Amino acid sequence: MLTLVSVISGMVFVLLAGLNPWIMLTNRANSKPSGRTWMRVHRTVGYVFIAVFMVTAYFMLLRLKGESDELAPRILLHMLLALTLAPLLLMKVLVARYQPQGSSVLLPALGITIFLLSFTVVAVNVVSARAARCQRPRNFHHNLAGVCSRCARFSRYIAPEKTRC
Q: Number of C-alpha atoms within 13 angstroms, CB side, residue 159?
C-alpha cells in the first residue's frame, strides 16, 4: 500500500512539474484577455509544487533516519537528483522575483530542467517498483527497461512461456 501511495504522489509531483512549463511554453500567459489569470495559475502551481517537494523530502528523510547500513545505489541516485532539484527551485524563484526583465531565456531553461529532474526522480523508483512486482520464472527475458516481458506486454514477441505479474 505504501508503494501505491508513493507512486500516486510521484505522478502528482510530475504532473505539477510538467504543468508549469506547458503553461509558459504555450504562451498562455502572454495572451491579452487571460494572461494575468494564467500567470497566477503558474505561480500557484509553482508554490504548490515547492510545498509538495518539501513535504515529500521531509518524509523521505524520516524514512532514512533509522538506517544504519549503506544505502542502495538506486536510493543514492534518487537522493542526488532530489538534492539537485532543491537549489534549482530556489534559483528559479529568486530569478523570477528579482530579475524578471533579463530572464527570458533562463526561466524557461530552469523550468524545463526542473521538470526533467522531477520526472527522473520519480521514474527511477516507479520503474524499480514495477520490476520488483514481477516474479521471475526459469527462462526470464528482460526488455530494455528491465521489466519482465509480460508486464511490458511484449510476451507474445519475446517470451512464449507464461509469467505471473
A: 21
**What total number of domains does the chain contain?**
2
Residues 86 and 156 in one domain: no
How does DSSP assign 97-163, residue by residue?
HH-STT-TTHHHHHHHHHHHHHHHHHHHHHHHHHHHHSPP-SS--B-TTS-BTTTTT-TTTS--S--
* pTM: predicted TM-score of the whole model, two decimal places: 0.70
C-alpha to C-alpha distance for 24 and 105, rounded to whole angstroms: 12
Cell matching residue 157: 514477441
State percent of the chain over pLDDT 70.
73
Per the structure, the complete domain to which residue 157 belongs is given by 138-165
115 and 160 share one domain:
no
